[in-house]
Design a protein that fits this description.
The complex is a heterodimer of chains A (307) and B (121).
Chain A (H helix, E strand, L loop, with lengths): L1 H6 L2 H22 L24 E2 L2 E2 L4 H23 L7 H18 L5 H24 L4 E11 L2 E7 L8 H22 L1 H6 L11 H45 L5 H39 L4
Antiparallel strand pairs in A: 1-2, 3-4
Chain B lengths: L1 H4 L1 H16 L3 H27 L3 H29 L1 H25 L11
Helix pairs in contact in B: 2-3, 2-5, 3-4, 3-5, 4-5
Classes of the chains: A mainly alpha (307), B mainly alpha (121).
Amino acid sequence: MTAWWKGLKTRSKLLLIAGAFLAITVFVGIAFPSAGRNNAFKPQNEFKLDPWVSIKLGPLDLSINKAVLYLALAATLTIATMLYIANRMKQAHPNRMQTAVELSYTFIRDQIAGPSLDRRMAQKWFAFIGTLFLFIWFSNLLGYIPLPTNTEETVNIFGINVPAFAIYAATANLSAPLALTLVVWFSYQIEGVRAKGFLGYLRSWIPAGTPRAMRPLLFAIEVISQFVRIISLSVRLFANILAGHLLILFMGGGLVVLLGLAAIGVVTLPLAVIFFLFEVVLIATLQAFIFATLTAIYLGESVAESH
Amino acid sequence: MEVVRYLDLVVLALAFPIFVVAGFPLLGYAAGALAWLLQRGIQVLLLRRAAASEDVRGAVGITAASMIGRGYLVALTIFGAGLIERDAGLAAAVLVIVLFTVYFATSFITRPLQPPRRPAP
């Protein structure tokens, strides 16, 4: 069987796999015909933030909800990891864990902070950028672990209504990336003003050698670009994580339940596995890396001599 | 560290008395446990085979096929249990999700501690 399979051309293998998928889908479609559209299932409820502990200060809603839980978990993990890294660095005899820890430290220093910042700035901002990377990374990764946080649907165990398992990430809600972005935005603006003075910093937005007549136009474009960074930095992270969760949700069964069509589950299930791996292995780390790297770039750019 | 690596199996054992005392469908436990143990066994076997393989494309193929195949195995077992008894299917699904949560969370801790793969000679 193995020798027969190995003897086939790639095209034949792909055709056989596609044919098998089609045959199984048709079989399941005939065995379990459409149950009709399910209007009770609301996929958007997976991202709804029900207040667990209601706290309201005037117009401010500071209620504890599942997003707060995910933020607290990510913060705890980040603090624990940073403390562990700090303690492990003192060990004289490295073990496997220390090697892993040192690798992550070196990665943040050499791949994220190092290339965009000069020595003084890198020393000053390394802890912030490292923390930012680890916090977003943990937030993203936690988002792929199913946790009992869906208070809309509950499972009764010994008379206690335990929330159903769901995947959710704090970064899949715009508020968390936006708050992080605002910290970054104000940090690099203040750093720029401190380094060059208020007017000097504004002047540095115009590239050196720009003809006088072009300066107002370029300055206006740069002002817009500075504010657009708030949107691009926060929405990039939020949209990527939300889209990943939606894809996993729909492919992992949401589409089958919503359409009441079991047959499409045959095709969507492997897609769910592929999307899940893609998100965990690539997107979670990549988005944390992009956010931290852009932070380093913005900080470096704000104090650089020329634009 | 071995206990952490197999913590999902410890949770699976601990879930049995909970199923019995709470009166959850035992068919659900049996289906969930069978699916989980089978897919874990297949995972260990195929990962060992992939690690031993010197052909990188072959190893990636084995790993990818194993993941999708194991997904089907678990889904079909839950589906089968659900066809026999709807509540049993739900119980099996909840059990498998709990086991996956434990397995996935512990794999983050144990992965950096795994010995590095020996390069092919």
